[in-house]
Design a protein that fits this description.
By secondary structure, the protein is α/β, with parallel strands linked by helices. The strands form two sheets. Strands 6-7-8-3-9-10 form a six-stranded mixed beta sheet, sandwiched between helices. Strand 1 and strand 2 form a beta hairpin. Helix 3 packs across helix 4, helix 3 packs parallel to helix 5 and helix 5 packs parallel to helix 6. The radius of gyration is 18 Å and the shape is globular. The two termini are 33 Å apart. It binds adenosine-5'-diphosphate and magnesium ion (MG). The site of magnesium ion has 2 residues, from helix 1. The site of magnesium ion (MG) has 2 residues, from helix 1.
Length: 231
């Protein structure tokens, strides 16, 4: 359901992505790893059509992403949920309101919002924090709100860019359990990370990029360059 077919996006020779071929099936859980500057964010930006490739084709679900008309881009992006290292919650809205807002902006009816927001807050395990503002929540709780927001419009794919980067190890494992649970419900998960211990303990597919090229793509433990603290 995600296909990168000979995708090249070079900022200058050797910098960006260079002839990348990747196929991710619906329902997979995939880690995308590699040192800083490897091309991970470029991969994500191409998927979100924040960037266009120089060459090659990108397919996500039913969408031929690099051929998408401007008019179709907002509709396409709604099929993809995104979460980031720094959560990006709206500071003046409660947990409930942050999630509800994601439905309001796509004009979901109020009745549906009132029904679904509590369900999704329960799924991510923070029903009791619905009325708290982000600054009243711990990091792991904020990330749970961000995940709820990313999921509330039922995306086919969840992209998580360093979702545990700001969390202590115990909290990070809680978030990994949640992402695994979401994946088991059918959402494809693509997680960018530097956390070698997480990647090698989870037994999932690992795609490693370095200097814009895929250098590893398997479920085997990955011992190559990954960046982060050990770099
Ligand atoms: P990663 O997310 O793996 O750290 P990126 O995809 O952000 O890597 O970047 C890959 C390389 O492309 C880096 O060397 C970065 O400096 C370079 N790069 C990213 N965006 C631009 C840009 N807009 N113009 C020029 N170079 C860029
Ligand atoms: Mg990056």
């Amino acid at each position: 359901m995600i296909i990168f077919d000979h995708v090249t996006k070079l900022y200058r020779p050797g910098v960006g992505l260079d002839d990348v071929n990747v196929k991710i099936d619906k329902g997979e859980f995939v880690f995308l790893v590699g040192p800083s500057g490897a091309g991970k964010s470029t991969f994500i930006e191409l998927m979100l059509k924040d960037l266009d490739p120089d060459k090659g084709n990108i397919m996500v679900g039913d969408y031929h992403v690099n051929k998408l008309s401007n008019r179709m881009i907002p509709k396409y992006r709604r099929k993809i949920g995104t979460v980031f290292q720094d959560f990006k919650l709206l500071p003046k809205k409660t947990a409930y309101e942050n999630v509800a807002f994601a439905m309001e902006v796509v004009h979901k009816p109020g009745s549906q919002i009132r029904k679904q927001v509590p369900q999704i807050l329960s799924l991510v395990g923070i029903s009791d924090k619905a009325d708290k503002y982000p600054h009243e929540l711990a990091g792991g709780e904020q990330q749970r709100v961000a995940i709820a927001r990313a999921l509330v419009n039922n995306p086919q794919v969840l992209i998580a860019d360093e979702p545990t980067g700001n969390l202590d190890p115990a909290t990070a494992w809680g978030i990994m359990d949640l992402l695994e649970q979401i994946n088991m419900r059918g959402t494809t998960v693509l997680m960018v990370t530097h956390a070698k211990d997480i990647v090698n303990r989870m037994d999932k597919r690992i795609i490693a990029i370095d200097h814009g090229r895929v250098i590893h793509d398997s479920r085997q433990d990955y011992e190559g360059p990954m960046g982060g603290d050990e770099e």
